[in-house]
Specification:
Helices cover 42% and strands 11% of the residues. The protein contains 14 helices and nine strands. Strands 8-7-6-5-9 form a five-stranded antiparallel sheet, with no helix packed on it. Strands 1-4-2-3 form a four-stranded antiparallel sheet. Strand 7 and strand 8 form a beta hairpin. The longest helix has 23 residues. Bound molecules: fe (ii) ion (FE2). The site of fe (ii) ion has 5 residues, from loops. Fe (ii) ion (FE2) binds next to loops.
């Protein structure tokens, strides 16, 4: 049985001659088994921003890398969460508590820097730091328990300067955990959703810098390499025995779609694990609402509409989309809306049972201080309603 591993280039250089055929993530063979990866080639690869290579030990030649990657993806078995619909949270879903917004945001910045450091460790061949990952997820779990109302604000209104990969991982973790809680998953599975979100894209570090940090749409070759990142994540997570099998499965499946249109394997709804289905919904929402060099961010309201359409077409898991809308609200915490009385307002909490009627802080005017706190769910739509979402406090 051929073996496939994802190894840091720095480790390869020490192994002379190489016991394996070595490939770039795009599939170029850079060293044949028994030969040495010369310093010049290694430097060239590192100059392209590559930090890892795929090491293949196979008897047969030539090596079919695509088949081996496919096999690696297949080795993850879909892990359904048997107790997914058993409520295990002691407190009721969705109580409103006044947010400590500034504290949440400061804490978020620290966590994103910790995730970025962990990814840098991985790039330099030091492996993942379990303590760092646990600290982020346990911190999120604690805040989700204490501040379920404003919790999702941690995922919204991100600074544009933040490094995309760690910031996206954090955002998806917040959304996936809020969503899993809304689905009434057991606490341990909510925690697994957070860990899965933080780890599902670690395979990105294997890709060349030009692919990882692209500032425009990728050409077909680079897009094909990018579509292998779930497999690279799974390969890297094999070297972290503390990562649960269910999380590894979710990492390799988080771009699969219910209608079998996803990648890397094109699995269908019966083959994808629930954790991966939850991560997919959180990932789609986070990606749509974040600005990228080639497109502006979508309003959360628009992103929710797209998710609903995807669920209606059986592309995304309907219960997860529904739970995300309940957890985040149609008008998410931190966003701005125009009310039927003409005033602008900032959303401060979602109402899970009335997703279009959040708790808002009415602004005195479009640019100045904040005024009255209003729970729209306590009023009739005729008395006060959201007319439309806004891009900013000013409109
Ligand atoms: Fe991904």
């Amino acid at each position: 049985m051929p073996s496939l591993r994802c190894i840091p280039i720095t480790c390869v250089q020490r192994q002379q001659p190489s016991p394996s055929d070595l490939f770039t993530p795009c599939g170029e063979r850079v060293c044949v088994r028994g030969q040495t990866l010369d310093m010049q080639t290694a430097a060239l690869l590192q100059g392209r921003g590559l930090t890892h290579l795929l090491a293949v030990e196979a008897e047969s030649n030539p090596v079919d890398l695509d088949a081996l990657l496919h096999q690696a993806a297949r080795s993850s078995e879909a892990c359904r969460i048997a107790s997914a619909h058993r409520p295990q949270w002691s407190e009721p879903i969705g109580p409103f508590e006044w947010p400590a917004t500034s504290m949440l945001r400061t804490w978020r910045g620290v966590q994103i820097r910790n995730i970025a450091e962990n990814l840098e460790h991985l790039q330099t061949g030091q492996g993942l730091d379990q303590k760092a990952i646990d600290a982020v997820v346990d911190g999120l779990l604690d805040r989700l328990k204490r501040h379920p109302g404003p919790f999702v604000e941690l995922a919204l209104d991100l600074e544009e300067t933040e490094d995309y990969l760690p910031s996206h991982a954090f955002t998806v973790a917040v959304l996936a955990m809020a969503l899993a809680r809304q689905l009434r998953w057991p606490v341990e599975q909510v925690r697994a959703a957070g860990i899965g979100a933080l780890l599902m894209d670690v395979g990105m570090v294997v890709l060349a810098r030009s692919i990882r940090q692209h500032d425009q749409r990728l050409d077909s070759t680079r897009a094909a390499a990018m579509r292998r990142h779930p497999i690279f994540s799974e390969l890297l997570l094999r070297d972290a025995p503390w990562v649960a099998q269910a999380v590894r499965d979710a990492a390799v499946q988080h771009h699969e779609r219910e209608d079998a249109s996803g990648y890397p394997l094109g699995l269908n709804r019966h083959q994808i694990g629930d954790l991966a289905r939850v991560l997919a919904v959180a990932d789609c929402f986070a990606a749509a609402t974040t600005s990228r060099p080639w497109r502006a961010p979508k309003l959360a309201y628009m992103a929710m509409e797209e998710l609903q359409q995807a669920a209606a077409r059986r592309r995304l898991w309907q219960p997860a989309v529904h739970a995300l809308i309940q957890a985040v609200g149609l008008f998410p915490v931190g966003s701005y809306v125009r009310l039927s009385d003409g005033k602008h307002a900032r959303v401060v909490a979602a109402n899970p049972h009335a997703v279009d009627r959040p708790v808002v802080l009415r602004l005195a005017d479009a640019t100045h201080g904040e005024g009255e706190l209003v729970d729209l769910a306590s009023l009739s739509p005729e008395a006060l309603n959201v007319v439309r979402p806004l891009y900013s406090a000013a409109g």
